[in-house]
Batch of 3 targets.
Target 1
Amino acid sequence: MSARTAIVNARIVDPASGFDGHGAILIEGGAIADIGPRLFNDAKPAGAEIIDAQGHVVAPALVDMRVFTGEPGAEHRETLKSAGDAAAAGGVTSIVVMPNTDPVIDDAALVEFIKRRADTTAKVHVHPAAALTRGLKGEQMSEIGLLKEAGAIAFTDGDRTIASSLIMRRCLAYAANFDALILAHVEDPALAAAGHMNEGAFAARMGLGGIPPTAEAIAVERDLHLLALTNARYHLAQISCAASLDAVARARQRGLKLTCAVSAHHLTLNEQDVGEYKTFAKVSPPLRGESDRVAMVEGVRQGTIDAIVSSHDPQAPETKRLPFAQAAYGAIGLETLLPAALTLHHEARMPLIDVLRCLTIGPANILRLPCGRLAKGAPADVVLFDLGAPRKIDPADFHSHTKNSPFVGRLMQGRVLRTLVGGKTVYAS
Amino acid sequence: MTGLFARQHLLAIAPLSRQEIESLLDLADTYVALNTQVQKKRDTLRGRTLINLFFEPSTRTQSSFELAGKRLGADVMNMSVTQSSVRKGETLIDTATTLNAMRPDIIVIRHQDSGAVALLADKVSCSVVNAGDGAHEHPTQALLDALTIRRRMKRIEGLTVAICGDVLHSRVARSNVHLLNKLGARVRLIAPRTLLPAGAETWGAEVFTDMREGLKGSDIVMMLRLQMERMAGSFLPSTREYFHFYGLDKTKLALAKPGALVMHPGPMNRGVEIDSAIADDAERSLIHEQVEMGVASRMAVLDALSRQLPNDPERRS
């Protein structure tokens, strides 16, 4: 591997700078050394490895703020290595891993463990999120200061909402003390307790208990009022309905600072995709009705939503081959994040650069990472993809240990050709 | 000498003037000298009855008041809640009127509820001293702290005093902020946000959540006791984390002014809010002096209040 790499003949799309046009990139020592439309017009770079993009898209590699793995404790579901392989294949080079493992990541030594394991086994950058409360129990806050010093990038109870408003308030206040980022899952636990999918006529006909969008909206509103008291760094890990989006917009009008994300599943699927009790479509929050899905797409288009996440959650057959009500929540998504998000471009006719913004600089800024942009000096984390290539989602292609994707068999466009981390190719198709 | 302090009760620092506070400190100075002599007994309060009424357990404050009363010649009775009929369902005000009927001259009261001492003071004809009410005030602690600082530094005006720790629940912090402001010190409050009261920045103190920043340039570092029961309520994650970020150790103290002095109202949680090496450092720590000044300050308060009692001149002659 030469120290210098040049990507030439590319359609460069960099949402951070707003550039979308023909050009080339020079990579040196793991960072972007030069970039521009006229770079290498006069001469090819001497002694550099040349990657001919053949006119395909070159963009900052994707940043995924919400990934569950099984390491430690459930390595049969996913290890940091297999998650890294899946990420690289999906054009994702920075992932935030959730603390919902066994043991729960609620101690500085465990944050260090994740970092060390990821450094030696995973192809991509792995940023551990630590538990916001000990054991994810929602009762006592974790050692946010010490965990942050150990390298926790954010604090979250993963797929759980802190039921007590008092504890949540204290967590927000204490996190603000350390300028620590909180990733909040928002679902009123009591309202959601009896449900398994989105509440509505469809769930009723299926005989399944419903989770109303209101359960999410109440949790969002509560948190936003607590946020006004505490001024914490607050991010809604995943929203799924128009009411939440509306709450976010109103809070911003009041001057609150916050960010929010939506999963690729909630942009592309709705409750009908549960079909005949398909447990791969059982996710949390549940897939919503079509009007909520459309609202999420519009949220991305209008810039209310800052990031798109995979919400990658590998579940083994023993937790999915069950009656719908008993099956675990979760769907994998690292390898389908890009093509799923690109449906916003191909079908909803959103400019490519706006879609990519939510996958790159959007999340990178929330996390305060230097990646997610194609600028001189930025890390050379880059993805090269064929924007229009048609493909049928085939579980045999997945690098994840488990295959629980609701997109299996679906036709999509967009294929990752090459993924680079620090200038080094970690995936090529 | 205490011509300026002419009140029936000492309930709080907030209403006192600078002159009132200074006259009490001047009087306390004279008792510091007395307390070093073999013959410590005066008959200032001879014939007077002092009741220590403690609804909250306390060793330090109660014994300090007891000793102060005895050295001034008063008869001292200690009542703690476990022995009183409050446990049998008597209301707070019933207790006060019952005690008042026994014709004490001064009642020293500690209560876990803010405002409870003032409520009792309204119902009795004798003098009342607040020995700490809830998270409201602890005026004699602020007086003894000021006396300690003044004797060591020769002044209070212009000093920078950093008060660190559980400000939210601390009556010591509230009384000290009032007193130090009145005497011209620059006061800082340092605490994690979960232990900072809403609106603390309006107290006339500079507020810091980063202890290292708050300690820079401080002359006095006043540590507050961390109530261990606060841990369960999730104000804080752990004592380990608290000590790491808010415990006073040599590294953090080095950020204060060279030779900065350390105070603590006691009892200390070693290894939680203060490192033993600091607490036991005779050069830097004023903790034992604070206890000594406590007796003198309380003698001054009892003396000053007794001069306002109705039958004062006849009784003393």
Note: The interface with chain B takes residues 133-134, 139-146, 166-167, 170-171, 173-174, 176-177, 230 of chain A (CB under 8 Å).
Target 2
Amino acid sequence: MATEEDNTVREPLDLIRLSLDEKVYVKLKGERELRGKLHAYDQHLNMILGDVEETVTMVEIDEETFEEIIKTNKRMVPYLFVRGDGVILVSPPLRS
Amino acid sequence: MADSGQQQAPSSAKTPADFLKSIKGKPVIVKLNSGVDYRGVLACLDGYMNIAMEQTEEYVNGQLKNKYGDCFIRGNNVLYISTVRS
């Protein structure tokens, strides 16, 4: 009989379930990235993350040289509720 | 319609759902609406087209930007899933 702690991945959301209480990487719309501990999630990919580092990437074009200048802003957030529709990708920590 | 009971090759799948079933465990390219490509081994997918992939490489404008051991892609971002010869 399958239990809650079943370690197999039968559907994609199992991958998220196996990452509960682990650090995850989340790629969001609008060039935003989050790294934090996954406390909870649901089928929409709404998520509660803790001790989150948010990285916002911006590309500016130098008006004279037309070079791309990539700027990243980082900030720490103790607790974050993420609405699922902004999520593009979730990656669990590397398991050996 | 006689069902031979044999393993169907991807090319002979009858519906999109049959195709998706037939490519589990195979190397694929997933393209998102943003134009970003993910190349890796398809672990599984569901009815929302949420995708779990392994050994995933992220390509932006043809350049390798990131690698993920495992990754989950939310289905609403998916433009297409393509098999690759390897």
Note: The radius of gyration of chain B is 14 Å.
Target 3
Amino acid sequence: MDETSIGWWGVPLAIFAGAIRISTPFLFVSLGEMVTEKSGRINLGLEGTLIMGAMSAYGIAYLTGSPWLGVLVAGLVGTIFGMLHAGICSLPKVNDIAVGIALMLFGTGLAFYLGKPLVQPQAPNLPSFNFGWWSDLQQVQSALKINALFIIGVVLAPVFLWALRNTRWGLILRIVGDSSDAARAMGYSPLAVRLVATAFGGFMAGVGGSFLSLYYPGSWNEGLSSGQGITAVALVIFARWNPMNCLWASLLFGGASALGPALQSVGVTQGYYLFNAAPYVLTLLILILSSSSHRHIAGAPGELSVTR
Amino acid sequence: MSNKLEISRRSLLLSGAVGAAGLAVSSLPFGRALAAGSLSVGFIYVGPRDDYGYNQAHAQGAVALKKLPGVKVTEEERVPETVDVEKTMESMINLDGAKLIFPTSFGYFDPYVLKLAKKYPDVTFMHCGGLWKEGEPDNAHSYFGYIDEAEYLSGIVAGHATKSKKLGFIAAKPIPQVLRNINAFTLGARSVDPAITTQVIFTGDWSMPVKEAEATNSMADQGIDVVTCHVDSPKVIVETAEKRGMFTTGYHANQAALAPKGYLTGAEWNWEALYPSFVADVLAGTTIPHLVRGGLKEKIVKTSPYGAMVGAAARKQADAVKAQLEAGTFVIFKGPIKDNKGNTVIAAGVSQGQTDIALESMSYLVEGVIGSTS
């Protein structure tokens, strides 16, 4: 046991470590949802998908002993949920927000039902890399224990940015999202593109859920997601549909979530309810500061029902 | 609309059932003997019953009842503290014939239990943690345990285990029961070494897995080496602490299986010892007190077996205090006690024994606790 205390340095360190530990589910869900929204559809059901992903990943990891198989299955379950959302929304005059809310409740309920026998067992967790070997401080070592999924997420963000701007796929996605008439005129089926985009968003949300149950906090529990999925959907709008901004927004949210416990641990004990609300206050502030009544929200897909 | 219909159907069923039961008891000579041998019991939990925590402790009590001959147990999990619990209780009474109900969550009592107790005077309601007051229905009862006795013992063991002299306590909300546990834990630890401090982190709610994990990690970063908690399910905290190489003391139920290296001991409910006595009382028609309270002496709370890493000195001191608590000769809240702002909260020479009603409205943190109640 390390006996050294790092005192106030613990606060920035905790925010840094929290940014890495807490942000991963936000990152995956928001990157996936960014793709879905770029195609002109919003999937609020990702909260349910996230919880289904967390539950199925935990179950599969427990039954097979392989956490990575759990991650894969979580992604597949997410894909099914995404396709379900897209399938229902393909029907004429169906509102994607209403379907999303229904799927959110359905996914949550189904996960609680199927996850009943999984509350007690302990499943193997995902491995992490030790990037803190250079430090003697046990606190730094712990903060730099970084999970592979986080690294994948960080790599995916610039890849998405590049793919959206420079690939044929990215172009089709943006056309469909900005004007389905134009897409149809060019011979692309908006419904098919949206199906793929929503299924992909579901896949990412499922993987994000697997991080919750298999790495941090690392167990299946019915209170596991306290709204991370729905927050991530909001983060996409906050990030102005830009993958790199999704990354920064997720990190900001993760770090701000760590603020409450970290401040209490160094003895700042007054007003912890306020510190616990820090992520939300921060979001409101940034949204207010960056809002404008003159210009259209930059990057907003034209077909998206919430911005139309 | 449909709700009204449902209730009237249920009342109809009930009047039929009561009539039939009354007929059976009054007209048949063996009716009463038969009724005395069998009992339908309902258990209602606010969360999953295998949560390694609050609900599991009650479910273990239910398991003890299932072993009794002639006792039928019905359980329902994840019942919110809303009108839902009223519906659950009514269906247990009307459809399962429950005569004894354990609504185990704090928020079930007022108004739901009180309302149904008036409506069904022949059903006994045993509510955990409630505050039965004079004038409330006769068939409603509340029970609770002085688990701070077990927390004091955990504190002693933690006080011996810590090297950094810094303990951590992750709690949900600053309510009297929680503060009492934090204070008893700290007093126990400081009876080993007065230099020990307890850092408190409030997470804000009873089940916040991510925040609980984050709190455990920030405690580890601050050099805290023993952590305990008062949340609904200590699973995440105990697992995270084990990963960080910290010691833990458990709460509600036994979490030793989750942390073979770090689980020192823990404060557990002993409902499996208490509940069979309630069943026996109901079957025998004995009057149960409206406020059932007790600690180690009454076998309402217990401690987890010591982990292998607990040293001889710790065992000796904890066992000695435990023997006094079981004999009823030890007082935890004995003046002079100062709060962590320097005010004297219990004057020298004043002993607040377990049954002292002043303890049930505790609003301070004792000297040595780093934290604040607001």
Note: The radius of gyration of chain B is 22 Å.
